[in-house]
Amino acid sequence: MRIDVITIFPEYLQPLRAALLGKAVERGLINLGVHDLRDWTHDVHRAVDDAPYGGGPGMVMKPQVWGEALDAVAPQAEGDEPGTKPRPRLVVPTPAGRPFTQRCAQEYAAEEHLIFACGRYEGIDQRVIDDAARRMPVDEVSVGDYVLVGGEAAVLVIVEAFARLLPGVLGNPTSAAQDSFSTALDGLLEGPSYTRPEVWRDLSVPEVLLSGNHALVDRWRRDQALVRTFHRRPDLVDRLPEDALDERDRAL
Ligand SMILES: Nc1ccc2ncsc2c1
User: Is 107 a catalytic residue?
Assistant: First the structure.
């Protein structure tokens, strides 16, 4: 998979070259390009923003600079035979976007080429998104109901969420199958985990986990996931299968 990130702070994306993701890049599972948006400016000040039409606080990122950057990173070469190059998907993190979920992460893990546009200030001139949408799918996505200073931190979150799903990235691929929100858990939250010692600061591991009875352990883990989900994320309840509601009543 190819990932391109366009930003005015390339150094912010260094964590993509560290740890597990860094290993995936080194091994060629991910082909990563991080680009400085200012490389497509032509003025002495290398300006990337301007005052908003209609007035209001803050600055808006200029369409000309973004247009040239996206043309360079996702060239629409004349005469390209359709399907000869993977069509990229443009992802624009924004507080005003649709929620980024585990399902989105699974979709992105299936893409061949993702381009991330990191906005700053009050955001990117909307015509950049509208122009790009003429030649590639564009997603404006939110990583939560809060506002950051820019899109870079959101890109780190999004890339980690889908890259860990790529074959060969995680040491133990089966662990992703039992994640919170996974199909195996019916979209529930994971329950609590424990490891040695059995007693720590007078706190004991739940007896059932020491029983060796896998059926009882599985049932206990399911109950813990149900109770945790219903208490912490009641908004996920309506997405659960009908029988999970009955399980809830038994578990609570
Ligand atoms: N451009 C911009 C500004 C704030 C923000 N918060 C989450 S993503 C994002 C993107």
Answer: no
